[in-house]
Amino acid sequence: xxxxxxxxxxxxxxxxxxxxxxxxxxxxxxxxxxxxxxxxxxxxxxxxxxxxxxxxxxxxxxxxxxxxxxxxxxxxxxxxxxxxxxxxxxxxxxxxxxxxxxxxxxxxxxxxxxxxxxxxxxxxxxxxxxxxxxxxxxxxxxxxxxxxxxxxxxxxxxxxxxxxxxxxxxxxxxxxxxxxxxxxxxxxxxxxxxxxxxxxxxxxxxxxxxxxxxxxxxxxxxxxxxxxxxxxxxxxxxxxxxxxxxxxxxxxxxxxxxxxxxxxxxxxxxxxxxxxxxxxxxxxxxxxxxxxxxxxxxxxxxxxxxxxxxxxxxxxxxxxxxxxxxxxxxxxxxxxxxxxxxxxxxxxxxxxxxxxxxxxxxxxxxxxxxxxxxxxxxxxxxxxxxxxxxxxxxxxxxxxxxxxxxxxxxxxxxxxxxxxxxxxxxxx
Length: 428
What we know:
single chain; alpha+beta; Jelly Rolls; four-stranded antiparallel beta sheet; 18 helices; 8 strands; 69% helix
């Protein structure tokens, strides 16, 4: 085995990954517009698609047939998805906006599910739409009180409503006991809408767990959610009256069906807010970010090494595709890490380590290529291709479309055609 082959693979791997540092520097020093970022991401996606088709799939098919392609792409996609989900769950999600949103979505679903488990039996909520319930849930504050605690005092201004999770409360008009409230019931609702004085006093009869919805928070939610502001107060008031008059309609749907409908309505707005970014930063882990980045880049580096060591000289199209696609990945990740408070030195160190490890992965690929037969090598190359295609479909292409909309169509086409053109030049 010629000694220059591993060294050649190392240099090509370093060259392909070196654009990670370029993207990181751009992310630290400059935050590009959404359309520009989308165009680069879409162009890189197009070139990678061309490289997968003409630099991976076609050579493997010609050398070993379709079987290693089917096996490799299936295994590559499965492994990539499983490993990335594992890494993201342990703090590596912040390296991509899409994985950050996915983490925030699951985190919000878990929080919502926990609250829903406690308030599913509040019948009034069943009369609200899932969007209305979802808008209210983040504003609920869990509180506990001891027996004889005064929750509402007659004649005082009303500034909140309460939902009873457990325990019992007594309603007094003056000194007269008017009613007894238990789990699943609520009180103080008119204060949420009008802020009028309390018409009665409410006193805890036993230890209680409740959720409080403050009027100021409720009004703030309306001001920040115009799509809910149009008549939500009127709808809530009408439905409260309907619930008081008849509870039959609320039982038309089971608790579990209602709970699932609310969970399905959980959404995360794009772009991420500063508060969401800070929330993500607290949950992220530098080691997991590095590992996730390597999982994104190692398949590309292995393909570089496989070609340098086993399937002939690598065409310039794949190297170009890897180089271009790494720029928006590092750029968007660096912007997110910078917003999360990560220092510039730490960001550059992270991406510098990724470049070096990508080069070493290319060297390992070239060494493996010299000891594997054509079928095994074709399967390994297809596995890497499946991982790259999974990365494109789960990260780069969705992010490009979210940033640039339909305009990314032409950038993707341009990237694919340029990649194909470079392949034809290398063949010729």
